[in-house]
Design a protein that fits this description.
Alkaline Phosphatase, subunit A; 8-stranded mixed sheet; two-stranded antiparallel ribbon
């Protein structure tokens, strides 16, 4: 290895843009002045201006659309794409999501006030905030998560499974240890050849015991809970799930690492897969290399442009406090950095071969002793304390019965992202009755979907 980092831990959340989450932090971290706006109708210069503000709620009830086509509207306001995006169609697109309700559409300009996400904001200011980290594809979750694992989405711009070599294959070939820790259903199995590595998948609570017992692998990837399941609420920050519950997960991960013997040689990387339709002011870069010669034909896309900017925080006692890194990164930078840190022999694609690595922020020769030992978390203290306890525990029959009796089952319909995970489980669980259950459309609530995917994933991972 090129540094004294022995453990890299990646925690990747869902669907939030840089400006939505950290843009209102004071300089040099944030970049919003309050003068940024979208027009209600970008085609009409006289239409109402909707300015950014610090009123973002913990819960965003309406999930903004972030398909490839909708992102083009957000970037270009309905005009033809160009080399530089005016970033002027967020209100227009969200108004459409809201059935034409302009008042709801204006809410897409709401950003989180300083301190309202205290764990994330503390780490951003105490360690390193990357101010130019971009999603790899101007589209939804799956292709962007694929780039973290594989530096390609194999020509996909939608939530469809792929087969491709991953950084985990390279680590395994080099004999370097790794695990993926999952909250309920690991989306990374949508790279179907990851089914050959089921022994490297462990429930999320195992992460904390592995840290405690000193058995944490060299590289860890944490997937949060994507579904509300009774008391075990989704903590992925994907709307409508609460941002505060994701912040509680971040605090639990950080606090555990910070107070362990592993801390001095650990790098925690906090990422978001894509912007989720939320406003950001910076036009995504163009001119990046197509990773593997594969293009999307419907819709047409050649993978030479990045997606919208997302939050990224690097956390290590080897990083000076208050570091701000304006280098351009994208999700392939993770694979590129892992290759460099662990001396792997080859890149995965042209994309990670060209990506900047972020190990240059590890500039201290010895670990800082002034890093906070515990992070603050917003929200009702009792709710947050219980959420943090449940992060570390499995599910017992007694607790399930108590949660059902308390009416904790989520009756919301599954989001599009959750439906994609249901399809994933259907795809990798080939038993006829399981496929028929999905085809019959009986999974019409988040609770029913959570029960289904967790039972199926448990069966798959016990094979």
């Amino acid at each position: 290895m090129t540094t004294s980092i022995d453990h890299v831990v990646v925690l990747m959340f869902e669907n939030r843009s840089f400006d939505h989450m950290v843009g209102l932090l004071p300089p040099p971290w944030g970049d919003l002045t309050g003068a940024e706006f979208n027009l209600v109708d970008p085609a009409n210069p006289a239409s109402q201006k909707v300015f950014v503000n610090g009123q973002a709620p913990d819960e965003c009830a309406l999930d903004p659309n972030h398909s490839f086509g909708e992102v083009q509207i957000q970037l270009y306001g309905g005009a033809a794409p160009g080399a530089s995006a005016p970033m002027n169609g967020f209100v227009l697109d969200y108004t459409s999501d809201a059935g034409g309700n302009v008042q709801t559409g204006m809410e897409i300009m709401q950003c989180h006030a300083p301190g309202s996400i205290p764990a994330l904001h503390t780490l951003a200011q105490q360690f390193c905030l990357c101010t130019n980290w971009f999603a790899s594809v101007p589209g939804p979750t799956w292709p962007n998560r694929f780039y973290v694992h594989a530096a390609t989405s194999a020509g996909e711009v939608a939530n469809n499974s792929i087969v491709t070599r991953t950084i985990w294959d390279n680590l395994a070939a080099a004999g370097t240890s790794w695990n993926i820790y999952y909250g309920d259903v690991p989306q990374s199995l949508a790279i179907l050849n990851m089914l050959a590595h089921l022994g490297n998948y462990r429930p999320l609570e195992s992460f904390f015991s592995d840290v405690q017992h000193g058995t944490l692998p060299a590289v860890s990837f944490i997937e949060p809970r994507y579904f509300d399941f009774l008391f075990w609420k989704g903590n992925d920050e994907h709307p409508p799930h609460l941002v505060s519950l994701g912040d509680a997960l971040l605090a639990e991960v950080y606090d555990t690492l910070r107070n362990s013997p592993l801390w001095a040689n650990t790098l925690l990387v906090v990422l978001y897969d894509e912007h989720g339709g939320f406003y950001d002011k910076i036009s995504p870069p163009t001119g990046v290399p197509n990773p593997d010669g594969k293009n999307s034909t419907d819709p047409p896309f050649d993978f030479t442009a990045l997606g919208v900017r997302t939050p990224a925080v690097l956390v290590s006692p080897l990083i000076p406090a208050g570091t701000v890194d304006a280098t351009t990164y994208e999700h392939s930078s993770f694979a590129a950095t892992i290759k460099k840190l662990f001396g792997l022999p080859s890149f995965l694609t042209r994309r990670d071969a060209a990506a900047n690595t972020f190990d240059g922020n590890l500039t201290l020769a010895t670990a800082r002793g002034d890093a906070p030992t515990a992070l603050p978390v917003a929200g009702d203290p009792g709710v947050i304390a219980e959420a943090r306890r449940l992060i570390r525990t499995g599910i017992t029959e007694v607790e399930v019965a108590a949660a059902m009796a308390a009416g904790e089952a989520s009756m919301r319909p599954p989001t599009d992202f959750q439906r994609s995970l249901i399809r994933l489980v259907r795809e990798i669980d080939h038993r006829p009755w399981a496929r028929a259950m999905v085809d019959a459309h009986i999974l019409d609530t988040e609770h029913d979907a959570a029960v289904f995917v967790q039972e199926r994933i448990g069966n798959i991972l016990r094979r």
